[in-house]
């Protein structure tokens, strides 16, 4: 009988800390040994010339998210979204369970489990989106759900059906402080956006391009500062998600220099797309394909995001995969969406391209090290959201979630190669250097050379520990 089920032989292992030549031995879905001369295995995979990195953990992905009746439904459920994840080298996604206003959060979580169970190609967890922080939700449901492994919340400072006022934000932050949960905050100011939207519409400026104008960086900066101030008041760490440019980045940096535990996340669209992608000024010119919030900015903002990545302002690089169709009744181009940018569904697909975009623009173009790449796409997500030391590294004891990566391979991102359900990719035609060759989920090859080998249902739900980044000193 062989010593191991599988050995990955001859590759270069990369963790957030080190890069070294080693073989990786796997048994019962776990990494059991990393080194040389490890013994025999039922199967040997030749990894020579490839990087052996932890499978991506994408801590910001929207799948099968409930949309209010009469509004466009999301393109991906768990099956297609998780299939897209493994094709891009990601083995764990953390999606969102949304509490519709007036509903029980516990029941909402049950609904999302029904949507995900047996439907996922990769492992998954849930953040809780709190839209209605009633005394029952704050006093009973959230503390109990945290104990059950839903250890992070998301709150919104905009959107009619999600926005919390300042008092509600403070209450949710205080609840998180009490139960040790980490709060992700969508920082854009509701009133400013409404004011700008109405002004633009009155002037006849309704094309998708004006989506960006309706929520400029000052709107994001003001909300980021307000969220930070509320977190300071309550004395709780928060994660500012999907930061788009210098203004919000500098708020986070300023807060950290003051000693506050404010964390930051950014995404591919803020280093690869700009507001110009949302042109033309006509509804049919495909600008809607790039509508997401916060919106893509400009080239100077890309540089600001790189500055934030290099200097540690951002801990995580997530996709914010939030896919909508372009065509059809649920698409960006639906009849109402064509009347104003206000009604174009917000969000773009990206889970499949997140790692390739960061690798190409970051590692291949010399902006970050390959170890920083691993930290930004896997290790830091696992640490931040209570999955470490199960996910996020290559070492004995970790789940054998691994991506074999060709650092020299040149590819072009094309919709026809994507595994998501959306009918377009906003990264169409982008040339990248560095590409996933094989993805393993708990030791099982689930993707190889463009082919899905895994089965729907391979993915398991992950109950998560408390984030070590969330607990307040002295609590
Ligand atoms: N916020 C997200 O996190 N994702 C998509 C849309 C949004 O506003
Ligand atoms: Zn958001
Ligand atoms: Zn999102």
Automatic annotation (TrEMBL):
UniProt gene name: hydA
Record SUPFAM superfamilies: Composite domain of metallo-dependent hydrolases, Metallo-dependent hydrolases
Stored InterPro entries: Amidohydro-rel, Hydantoinase/dihydroPyrase, Metal-dep_hydrolase_composite, Metal_Hydrolase, Metallo-dep_Hydrolases_sf
Membership in a protein family: Belongs to the metallo-dependent hydrolases superfamily. Hydantoinase/dihydropyrimidinase family.
Identification of the protein by name: Dihydropyrimidinase
Organism: Kaistia nematophila
One annotated Gene Ontology cellular component of this protein: cytosol
Domain Amidohydrolase-related per the UniProt entry, residue ranges: 51-446
Names of the cofactor(s): Zn(2+)
Top EC class, one word: hydrolase
The keyword Transmembrane belongs to this UniProt entry's keyword annotation: no
NCBIfam families membership: D-hydantoinase, PRK13404.1
Record's comment on post-translational modification: Carbamylation allows a single lysine to coordinate two divalent metal cations.
């Amino acid at each position: 009988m062989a010593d191991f089920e599988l050995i990955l032989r001859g590759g270069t292992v990369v963790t957030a800390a080190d890069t070294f030549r080693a073989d990786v031995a796997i048994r019962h879905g776990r990494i059991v040994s990393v080194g040389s001369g490890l013994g025999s295995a039922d199967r040997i995979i030749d990894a020579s010339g490839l990087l052996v990195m932890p499978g991506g953990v994408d801590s910001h992905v929207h799948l099968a998210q409930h949309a209010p009746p009469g509004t466009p439904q999301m393109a991906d459920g768990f099956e297609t979204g998780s299939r897209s994840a493994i094709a891009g080298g990601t083995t764990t996604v953390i999606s969102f369970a949304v509490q519709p206003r007036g509903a029980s959060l516990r029941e909402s979580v049950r609904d999302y489990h029904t949507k995900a169970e047996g439907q996922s190609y990769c492992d998954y967890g849930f953040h809780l989106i709190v839209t209605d922080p009633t005394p029952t939700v704050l006093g009973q449901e959230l503390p109990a759900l945290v104990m059950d492994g839903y250890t992070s919340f998301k709150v919104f400072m905009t959107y009619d059906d999600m926005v919390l006022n300042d008092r509600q934000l403070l209450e949710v932050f205080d609840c998180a402080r009490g139960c040790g949960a980490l709060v992700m905050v969508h920082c854009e100011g509701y009133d400013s956006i409404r004011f700008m939207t109405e002004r633009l519409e009155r002037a006849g400026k309704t094309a998708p391009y004006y989506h960006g104008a309706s929520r400029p960086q000052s709107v994001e900066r003001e909300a980021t500062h307000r969220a930070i101030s509320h977190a300071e008041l309550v004395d709780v760490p928060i994660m500012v998600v999907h930061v788009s440019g210098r203004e919000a980045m500098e708020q986070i940096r300023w807060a950290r220099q003051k000693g506050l535990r404010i964390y930051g996340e950014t995404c591919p669209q803020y280093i690869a797309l700009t507001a110009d992608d949302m042109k033309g000024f006509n509804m049919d010119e495909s600008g809607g394909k790039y509508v997401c919030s916060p919106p893509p900015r400009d080239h100077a903002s890309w540089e600001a995001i790189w500055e934030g990545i290099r200097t540690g302002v951002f801990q995580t690089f997530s996709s914010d995969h939030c896919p909508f169709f372009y065509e059809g009744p649920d698409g960006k181009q639906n009849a109402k969406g064509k009347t104003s940018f206000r009604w174009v569904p917000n969000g773009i697909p990206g889970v499949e391209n997140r790692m390739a975009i960061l690798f190409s623009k970051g590692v291949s173009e010399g902006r970050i090290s390959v170890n920083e790449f691993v930290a930004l796409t896997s290790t830091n997500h696992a640490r931040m959201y209570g999955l470490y030391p199960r996910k996020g590294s290559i070492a004995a004891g970790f789940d054998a979630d691994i991506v074999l990566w060709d650092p020299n391979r040149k590819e072009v991102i094309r919709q026809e190669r994507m595994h998501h359900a959306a009918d377009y990719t906003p990264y169409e035609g982008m040339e990248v250097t560095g590409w996933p060759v094989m993805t393993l989920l708990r030791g099982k090859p689930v993707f190889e050379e463009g082919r899905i080998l895994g089965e729907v249902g391979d993915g398991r739900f992950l109950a998560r520990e408390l984030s070590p980044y969330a607990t307040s000193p002295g609590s």
